[in-house]
Amino acid sequence: MSKIFNFTVLKIIFFLALLSCNEYQKILNNDDLNLKYKAAENYYNNGEYRRANRIFEQLVPSYRGKPQAERLVYFFADSYYQTKNFYLAAYQFENFIKSFPKSQKIEEANFYSAKSHYMLSPVFSLDQEETLKAIDKLQIFINNYPDSSYMDESNQLISELQTKIERKDFEVAKQYYTIYDYRAAIKALDNFIAEFVGTKFREEALYYKFLSSFEIAINSIELKKLDRLEDLKELYYNIIRYYPETLFEEDLTKKMKIVDKEINTFENKIKL
Questions:
Q1: Per-residue confidence (pLDDT) for residue 270, from 0 to 100
Q2: Higher per-residue pLDDT: 263 or 181
Q3: Cα–Cα distances in angstroms (integers) from residue 34 to residues 13, 27, 59, 242, in the given order
Q4: 19 pLDDT exceeds 60?
Q5: How far apart are the two ends of the chain, measured CA to CA in Å?
Q6: 78 burial level (CB within 10 Å; 0-12, 13-18, 19+)
Q7: Contact status, residue 164 vs residue 170, Cβ threshold 8 Å
Q8: Chain-wide mean pLDDT for the chain?
Q9: Which is nearest to 213 in space by CA: 243, 250, 239, 244?
Q10: Which of 63, 121, 208, 252 could form a disulfide with 131 if both were Cys (CB 3.0 to 4.6 A apart)?
């Protein structure tokens, strides 16, 4: 009995879905603009953004210059955003901004245009052109709408994007250490620290600078070894001063014992 009931329910659901699909196709093929406009708004308000989007796409050219155009173009842009088509969302929001600069929705359109670029930002390991574009768009929004209700979110989005840029640069710099090019690593890490003064990766960058400097110092010729070991000690104390509870304390302490031993050995040679 239960199986029969479930099968009947499935048949009803399938039938209703079929009716809905047939009705939607009829609307798409209908030439009545007013009917299409009402249907598109209906779909949009009910969260059926993909269906609404297709109808909006048909309607936009026909309503250009008409009173409904502003509302229609905004919904068209937002339907792309809601369906996660962020490339076209950004494009259509920017089209709305240019077409209706005095609209009550202009602030919202500017924010979602910028946020669409944020959504397009790839993982840190890939090219960050879109990330830089998103930061630029969000910063322009913040400058133009300092009292916006989207201000906190905009700042948070910029912070996330900036961290991604910093991580990209840090990983590139760190890569030199992993391929044993210690001089290039030190130079890249110094540039990174100088460019991103308040970065969350500063502690780790200093640690990898220490590791690179350690390898160079330990393997130096006698003429340069002592000076490099002393510079290494200074770098160690700088790390400890800024990060007294550093995550790398155990490894730093272990390597400093080697450094101190090397310095003592070198100084004993001089005495002899």
A1: 64
A2: 181
A3: 29, 11, 10, 67
A4: no
A5: 101
A6: buried
A7: no
A8: 90
A9: 239
A10: 121
Q: What is the pLDDT of residues 26-68, one digit of tens each?
A: 888 777 788 889 999 999 999 999 999 999 999 999 898 898 8
Flag whether the pTM goes above 0.90.
Answer: no
State how far the Cα of 83 lies from the Cα of 79, in Å rounded to an integer: 6
Q: Which two structure tokens, joined as six digits, stand for 220?
A: 């130096």
- Single-letter amino acid, residue 143: N
